[in-house]
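Hi there, hope your week has been kind to you so far. No rush at all, and the record is pasted right below.
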Amino acid sequence: QVQLVESGGGLVQPGGPLRLSCAGSGPIFNIATTAWYRQAPGKERELVATIGSSGSTKYGDSVKGRFTISRDIVKNQVTLQMNGLKPEDTAVYFCYLPRYDIWGQGTQVTVSS
């Protein structure tokens, strides 16, 4: 079974950038849509961005223009570049394969001065 491992989370000041990565244990990102979700304390899990098998992308309204999702098929990796971070972006970020209902373990992102 494919496993997903996120990395790149941490503490960042408001307005700063952060780059998250999702590594797959096998060649999966070229044949299945991949999504980034996030969940803040006391809130429901929220869709952040998706990238389809064709490379098409979609974003949640709250991150449009600030976040960019991309993939490297050779490295089996999906990346979420986050710019202009705000305190309300603080959450645990998860990588997800909807087709297989597979989640990563999540990585914490904290935006604070």
